């Protein structure tokens, strides 16, 4: 997956001293092929496959046309969205749902460094999967409660460590997905993206992005 800084900078008229926001793309549509992402008509990210979360790029405040097409092709355009960006902030544009109903949702990221701790967010991006609780394994306490499809559980701060987690069907003890050995380094922020399909392929799983 190649980040085309030169083409993107030419498109947006990048000036390093001006205030900028940061934007990235998460490919979370389980049956969509690898894609290219265009910003104002020019390639910004290429060959992003299911489960990939790109690096951030800096953009000035304004409205940006985001288009998603199959990798290496000019069409069809499977997503087209006009995204307004402020002067500052970090944002993830997530391509979600199955290909027939693919859409984009923008999540605002809160990328802060806390020495000795990790900022953690959970996002439910698995179509057809019921709301879930994210908890410590083996009946441990709930960290993110009753998170429905497309929703974020917000950010929490936890001590840096390695955790065994599990996704339970919300309000029950039924474990839908086990997540052993999730390493959380101090001074970082991460997002855990639930993706895939509960009773089909690709199977329900997670993509973990280190956000800062």
* Count of discrete alpha- or pi-helical segments spanning 4 or more residues: 1
Number of strands: 16
How much of the sequence is in beta strands?
over 45%
Question: What is the average per-residue confidence, as pLDDT, rounded to a whole number?
Answer: 90
Give a short account of the largest sheet: 4 strands, mixed
Please give a structural write-up.
With 212 residues, this protein is mainly β. The protein is built from 1 helix and 16 strands. The chain has one helix spanning 5-12; strands at 20-27, 35-39, 42-48, 57-60, 62-70, 79-85, 90-96, 103-109, 117-124, 132-136, 142-147, 152-159, 161-169, 175-184, 188-195, 205-210. The strands form 4 sheets. A 4-stranded mixed beta sheet has the order 4-1-7-8, with no helix packed on it. The longest helix has 8 residues, at 5-12.
What's the topology here?
Layout lengths: L4 H8 L7 E8 L7 E5 L2 E7 L8 E4 L1 E9 L8 E7 L4 E7 L6 E7 L7 E8 L7 E5 L5 E6 L4 E8 L1 E9 L5 E10 L3 E8 L9 E6 L2
Parallel strand pairs: 1-7, 9-15
Antiparallel strand pairs: 1-4, 2-3, 2-5, 5-6, 7-8, 9-12, 10-11, 10-13, 13-14, 15-16
Keywords:
212 residues, mainly beta, 4-stranded mixed beta sheet, 4-stranded antiparallel beta sheet, 1 helix, globular
């Amino acid at each position: 997956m190649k980040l085309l800084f030169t083409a993107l900078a030419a498109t947006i008229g990048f000036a390093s001293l001006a205030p900028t926001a940061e934007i990235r793309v998460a490919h979370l549509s389980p049956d969509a092929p690898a894609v290219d992402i265009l910003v104002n008509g020019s390639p910004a990210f290429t060959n992003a496959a299911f489960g990939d979360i790109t690096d951030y790029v800096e953009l000035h405040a304004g409205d940006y046309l985001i288009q998603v097409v199959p990798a290496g092709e000019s069409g069809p355009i499977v997503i087209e969205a006009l995204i307004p960006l402020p002067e500052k902030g970090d944002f993830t544009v997530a391509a979600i749902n199955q290909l027939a109903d693919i859409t984009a949702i923008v999540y605002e990221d809160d990328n802060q460094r806390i020495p000795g701790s990790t900022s953690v967010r959970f996002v439910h991006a698995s179509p057809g999967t019921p709301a879930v609780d994210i908890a410590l394994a083996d009946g441990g306490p709930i960290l993110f409660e009753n998170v429905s499809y497309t929703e974020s559980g917000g950010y929490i701060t936890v001590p840096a460590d390695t955790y065994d987690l599990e996704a339970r069907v919300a309000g029950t003890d039924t474990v839908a997905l086990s997540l052993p050995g999730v390493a959380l380094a101090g001074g970082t922020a991460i997002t855990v993206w639930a993706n895939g399909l509960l009773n089909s392929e690709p199977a329900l799983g997670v993509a973990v992005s280190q956000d800062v």
